Fold this sequence. Notes:
The chain is α/β, with parallel strands linked by helices. The chain folds into two domains: 7-44 and 271-360, Alpha-Beta Complex (Aspartate Aminotransferase, domain 1), CATH 3.90.1150.10; 47-267, Type I PLP-dependent aspartate aminotransferase-like (Major domain) (Aspartate Aminotransferase, domain 2), CATH 3.40.640.10. It has 13 helices and 13 strands. A seven-stranded mixed β-sheet has the order 2-8-7-6-5-3-4. The structure holds pyridoxal-5'-phosphate. Pyridoxal-5'-phosphate is lined by residues 39, 91-93, 117, 160, 164, 191, 193, 221, 223, 229, 234.
Amino acid sequence: MKPPVPERIATLRPYQPGRPIEEVERELGLSGTIKLASNENALGASPAALKAAAAALERVHRYPEGGVVLLRRALAERLGVAEDQLVFGNGSNEIIELAVRVFADGGREVVFSENAFMIYELVARAEGARPVAVPSRNFEHDLEALAAAVGPSTGVVFLANPNNPTGTVFGRDAWDKFLAAIPGNVVIAVDEAYREFVDLPDFPDTVADLGRHPGLLAMRTFSKAYGLAGFRIGYGVGEASLVDAMERLRQPFNVNLPAQEAALAALDDDEHLRRSRELVDEGRRFYSALFDRLGLSFVPSQANFVLVAVGDGDAVTNALLKGGVIVRPMAGYGYPHMIRVTVGTDAENARFAEVLEDLLGGQEAEG
Length: 367
Ligand SMILES: Cc1ncc(COP(=O)(O)O)c(C=O)c1O
């Protein structure tokens, strides 16, 4: 006899993260490998954040403040919300999970766009909620179809803006219509992990819109533009009652002490944020020019990565790996002909370009 594993857990396909450099180098006997596979910040963390985290190590035998007090205060002030409108998580991933656990309890539906960040579906399945994937349109969220898919059994609808892996965004008009169409008892969780990289005048300001819908939840992270992916810290912003429900369910010390201190310092490092944005902006332009030159079709991106059609995504990923460049194959997202490549430093982007050009040299790429 063995302890039984529930069917929904036994059939779950765990999230496949980008492969770590160390693992790839061990396996292929390589050195100097570069990783452009997990949408991390190629500049690294803000030096001020690292200093703050290092100083916090002296207190690491103590539990952190469960309420994330100092960062909560600073962020509330910065966002113009009350402190009890914020909930912090072990990465914004935990906020996604909390939203489903609380608001899609009892087998309710979780609605999201097809080809959106995979965690929405995974968490829905894991928690025994019912995932509803809505077809996307030309790589973009179809907000009208998403609104139409929301029904009496819907608990949460996730929107990724920008979306991973497509890098696409929706603007103010589509957002306004969507917001007006969704009943107040449904949570609209807007995942804004890459919002700092968006360069679009009509990009919706969800936090400013909180008063317009009682179920609105903005989810943000320190993992991307702030370069703190390894510390695991993100947050949600919503109405106090919404946030309170999630607070009840979270682990008492879900955000570690160095992460809290690093995030607090990172918030004030405007120069690092500016440089990170600039790097991504230049990197996106570099990739666009590269793909145009190679005749590869790609999805114009508002985030720190680009989705590009290369023919056979798995084969190209493996060939790039042998050339010391880790990217992400996209078959799991329904794009077997594509790869997703993160913006790196100038040198890393150039290295990717060189290996890719060698690989595709002369060969006709499929669009
Ligand atoms: C769209 C999106 N949301 C959320 C996350 C989770 O980020 P984290 O848990 O590091 O905050 C990611 C990470 O890749 C992402 O791409």
